[in-house]
Amino acid sequence: MKWLQPVQVSVPREVREVVGGHLLLAQALVRRNLCTASEVRGFLDPSYYRPTPSLELPGMAAAVQRLRAAIERQEAVLVWGDFDVDGITATALLVEALERLGTRVLWHVPNRERESHGVHWRSLQPYLGRGVRVLLTCDTGVSAHEAVRQAQKIGLDVVITDHHDPPPQLPPALAIVNPKLLDSDHPLHHLSGAGVAYKLAEALGVAESGLDLVALGLVADAVPHSGDVRYLVQLGLQALRATRRIGLCALAEVADVSLAVIDEEHISFALAPRLNALGRLADASTGVQLLLEKDLVRARALAAEAEALNVRRQFLSKQVTAAAQEQLDRDSTLADSPILVLSHPQWPTGVLGIAASRLVERYARPAVLIATPPGEMARGSARSVAGVDVREALAAHSDLFNSFGGHPMAAGFSLPPERVPELRRGLIRTVSRSLCGGQPEPELAIEAYLSITEITLQLAEELERLAPFGPGNPPVRLATTALRITSARTIGRTGEHRIVELQDEDGHTASAYWWQSGNLPVPEGQFDLCYVLRVERSEGERSLRLEWIDVHGMELPRVAPAPAVAISDVADYRGLPEPLAVLRAVWEEGQMQAWAEAADLPGFDALTRRELREMPALAVWTIPPAARVLAQALARAKPMRVYLFAVDPELDVPRVFLQRLAGVVKHALEASNGRLDWHDLAAALAHRVETVQAGIEWLAARGQVSMASMGPEGAEVRAGGVSDLEAAQQWQTRLEDLLRETAAYRRYFRFADAQSLVALADMDGLSVRPAK
Q1: Domains along the chain?
Q2: What's the pTM value of the predicted model, to 2 decimals?
Q3: Which in 119, 202, 259, 343 has the greatest CB count within 10 A?
């Protein structure tokens, strides 16, 4: 990247006083055009910000009037959303708000594969016989001319709430609420679909409960963090940290995120991808159901479905990105174009946008990926870079499309497959003309140069006052010169990240996290490093995290360490009548180990998850209790070949599980004075750690054992104790919930696509062999 050197600014005295005298923080605020005490207070503390009235949004008054009339007349309202996180959260927010007002609400989210974006008359028709008198869209509809005209003919009132760029001619709806109809500097201009939905709920007087949802939608849609957007994200994060929404709690649980310390990064990299996976690979309606769910067991089942689909989404994204890269490597003319336009008949449409983003990051130019399945309409996703309006580039060729829409940085479209070559040529011409001054060079604004001794936790905490970060408000980029790497080690489930140890010329040291660097060369010699500082929170403790962004002055790199062994072959032997005979046959191939827990495997040395070691082949005999347990086992074994057998250990029924647990505990009382290791216990019972912990708590509450000590690694129990029937009932409920979750995953494991089951490992070039 091109480094932009720190811009010298004059800091007003009042700004420095507001921030407690910290010069670097004050300079960062001034660089963000916050130059008065009132502006700074409103930016740092939402309680000082004056939110913009909802009625400043065009069309809001008419929308509120029609919805209030529907409430009074007991008319049914159909909420029509979209299948990304912004659309899912907007839909749930409006459904919840209208139900609180006593409205009869129906809702619909289009299926990406069957319907694509927008409002479709064919999908709308089944709702007309159910008393619907108002169609209320969210995060969609501003280009739905045909559907609105058809609705008008039958007397259906249409209220559109959307945030996408409006077309030259708006559809003839009763009301159109869209912040893009405001001036670009208006504080509401950058609201996402969930943000507009929240302002509508606010105008109706029922917005408070939707703040957690609006934070999800605004952050996931990557809208600029300015004006009311920042204010709503600040309030929304506060609401998320205290949310009692069962669906979000279940989603955070599978994502291993603590809601108590959640921030915008957790949304972007943990919660949003799981919700998005539903719309990309299945049905986004499941996401709306999850956010509205009141039953914990059902919520956990829906969250588990999102987790499984996210695993498959990760695999497919890798696969499409690798295939696109192969096309570019094979044909240099494609890679040299000002815009990358690639297509393939077998690419899944749900992950095209993700793969396109990966290419944008790699090549620093716009990328368009198109799926062209035989006999079907071609569909594509585009992602761009600063300086290239990809929606405008597509609009120049609108005659080629059946449909298209989006933003300057991201867009989607469909067209006849035979017109893809014409689109490629046209986009290259259009983008070339717009870049007459040359391809824009990625820029990185450095705000200050520091020595290693100046990098402190206190500094990170000061700079974190600028959070939440996002488009329009990036974290403060700092730089340190003349550094060397003294050591580097890979981290992550598949070694995809690194922690590097840095040293300056005076011998001072620091550690840096270098994300997605596992297969990149390590700088040799001295270099300058750009980084950001983060505060990491865990169990009440705070620590400093330095995150690597970019380097300058790098010498020729040494050869990168070999990446983790990739799984190249998966043999699927699930459901065969004589699995043991099959295992004996494949065992003869040699260099294999069998992972089997709580199951008899005569003639073989069955290993638990903690006993696995690196070996070329791994037989997965029993079904793991969760995707993360499988991922951990694969990371430990690092196999090149995996053989799936999927034998159920049949320990998911509470009575059976507790009988086996009691037997294991009895043995521990006799053999090791009651000392229990959570991980060994979980492996012995083929379950998750939290499940065996709940089982031990149940035994203690029933008075069968007593806790002498308990910690994160294990516990020490004694025979006998005092019973507490109320506590026993609570732990039984918790245990039953956990066992149901595991049973659901094992059912999924028996029938799911084999690729998706092992997708958490590094699987570039993976092939799957069915049973012969």
Answers
A1: 54-243 (3.90.1640.30), 331-416 (3.10.310.30), 445-552 (2.40.50.460), 566-772 (no CATH)
A2: 0.72
A3: 119
